[in-house]
Amino acid sequence: MIRVGIGYDSHRLVEGRSLVLGGLRIPFERGLDGHSDADAVAHALTDALLGAAGAGDIGRLFPDTAPEWKDADSIVLLRQACELIRGRGFVPWQADITIIAERPRLNGYFAAMAARLSDATGIVVANLGLKAKTNEGLGWIGRGEGIAVMAVATVESP
Ligand code: MG
C-alpha cells in the first residue's frame, strides 16, 4: 500500500544566520531564521513523510519551545522522524520538493542535497525530486523576505 503526504514550510531571511537547505550550508548574505537551523527543505519533507504515515507533524514531534531543538540540525530531526515512520510499519519511498526562493540560485546544490536527504530518509536518490523556482518578484518571497518549500512524499507499507 502506498500513502501520500504533503508538507509546506517557510522561514524569514535575516542577517547573521547561515542559509541551510536540504542539509547543506549554502553561501549567501542572509540565512533563514528559526528555532532550529531553519532548514525549510528538511522541515517540509519531514512533514510530508509524517503526514503520509499518519504520524503527526514536525511541530508536535519537535516543539520549537523545547531547548533541545534550539539550533538543531534538521537533518537529525528528519532522520528521527523516519525512524518513527518505520516503527509504524511504513517505509519512506519517494519525495518531490519545490523550493520557492528569489535568490540564491539553488540548482547547483541539488545533487549534494539529494545525497543528504537520501542518507537521512533511506529514499534512493533516483526517487528524490528537487526543483527551485523564483516567485517572479511577487509578494514576500519576491521581495526576498523569506523562502518557502513545498513537498510531497510517499511511504509504502511492505
Ligand atoms: Mg520550519
The run of helices and strands is EEEEHHHEHEHE
User: Percent range for helical residues?
Assistant: 25-40%
**How many strands?**
7
By helix and strand content, what is the structural category? alpha+beta
Radius of gyration from the CA trace? 15 Å
Dominant shape: globular
Number of helices: 5
Write a structural description.
It is a single chain. This protein has helices at 40-52, 58-61, 74-87, 110-121, 139-142; strands spanning 2-14, 19-21, 24-26, 31-32, 91-100, 128-133, 146-156. The chain is α+β, with helices and mostly antiparallel strands and 158 residues long. Helix 1 (40-52) runs parallel beside helix 3 and helix 3 crosses helix 4. The protein has a five-stranded mixed beta sheet with strand order 4-1-7-5-6. The chain has a two-stranded antiparallel sheet with strand order 2-3. It has five helices and seven strands; from the N terminus they run E-E-E-E-H-H-H-E-H-E-H-E. The model has no long low-confidence stretch (mean pLDDT 96).
Which key terms come to mind for this protein?
7 strands, globular, alpha+beta, binds magnesium ion, 5-stranded mixed β-sheet, 5 helices, single chain, 158 residues
